[in-house]
Specification:
It is a single chain. By secondary structure, the chain is an alpha/beta fold. It has helices at about 15-25, 80-85, 85-110, 145-165, 190-200, 215-230, 250-260, 285-290, 295-310; strands spanning about 5-10, 30-35, 55, 70-75, 110-115, 170-175, 175, 200-205, 210-215, 215, 240, 245, 265-270. The chain is built from nine helices and 13 strands. It has a seven-stranded parallel β-sheet with strand order 3-2-1-4-5-6-11, with helices on both faces. A two-stranded parallel sheet has the order 7-10. Strand 5, helix 4 and strand 6 form a beta-alpha-beta unit. The radius of gyration is 19 Å and the shape is globular. Bound molecules: nicotinamide-adenine-dinucleotide and uridine-5'-diphosphate. Nicotinamide-adenine-dinucleotide binds near residues 9, 13 and 59. The site of uridine-5'-diphosphate (UDP) has 15 residues, from helix 5 and strand 8.
Length: about 300
Amino acid sequence: MKKNRVLVTGGAGFIGSHLCDRLLADGNDVICVDNLFTGSKDNIRHLLENPYFEFIRHDVTQPLFVECDQIYNLACPASPKWYQKDPIYTFQTSVYGAMNCLGLAKRTGARILQASTSEIYGDPNIQPQPESYWGNVNTIGIRSCYDEGKRAAETLFFDYHRKHDVDIKVMRIFNTYGPRMDIGDGRVVSNFIVQALRGEDITIYGEGNQTRSFCYVDDLIEGMVRLMNSRDGFTGPVNIGNPGEFTIKKLAEIVIELTGSGSKLVYEPLPSDDPTHRKPLIDLAKKELNWEPHIQLREGLKRTIEYFSKVV
Ligand code: NAD
Ligand code: UDP
């Protein structure tokens, strides 16, 4: 593969740091831009001495001037706990961050990939979700800052493409998990594993009948790199996720089994607008990217538990 100068916004986060690892392994020059809002230098500490890696502490709501061939735009808090902490800032990050990155792509001619989300489907009333589905999103709820921010970013991507011929790729990421998830960011996989390892109660919100489809981070990164390097003219949006669908209660039971934990399940109130089910249709990714996930939930959880058992 050609050596590129690749900018990764949000590169010190969970997914971003794995992406930086992969891009460096492929022989690229990597510029990681992050304001460490939810990310951490610990995620990229092993890269800081690499001469092909640069870290720039920068907030993507402000313009950035660097030279690059490819841009992956991942900067945005992703867990409900963090994106709801300062919802106006979350919206600004999605929208101004997208505009600043798109402006940079326009000036440099770089190809740009947006880390969009299955949240743009809201609480979907069709199952599984194809890319052609326009979604069922509350505009005024507690998740709206994230969902609508990401929807607006998709709009900006397609408008810059139509108006300014920017070379875009839009990826809709479904729930992703793996090593380097932040221990305290409240997402379900990290919460359950940490609770199980500590022998604490496992907190199920609602009755635990809501479903999610969990993709292991290595599979996701493969899909992301394939999308960035996909044929000219293929913009997406494309779903990248694992179609294996599990109830949250089932996930808790598997985590207890794999950790051998004595933790008990406890039930807490369901947050508002929590989607009742979510499962990607991935036919487009199979066709265009020849991609599908290979690491199924139990295997991915084992690897993630191994990581958390060292940091908990
Ligand atoms: P994360 O919180 O670990 O990473 C986000 C990174 O963005 C962090 O390092 C954070 O410090 C940085 N950031 C936030 N605001 C910033 C700003 N204004 N300027 C510069 N940097 C900023 O989350 P993640 O799970 O790695 O998610 C990465 C991307 O993938 C996000 O855009 C997220 O919306 C998207 N995504 C993730 C999932 C998932 O399940 N993990 C699902 C759908 C979409
Ligand atoms: N959830 C839960 N217990 C937790 C954390 C989350 O039952 O300790 C539920 C949450 O209500 C949601 C699902 O798990 O239904 C996934 O939550 P997460 O925050 O990981 O992702 P998202 O809701 O954004 O898909």
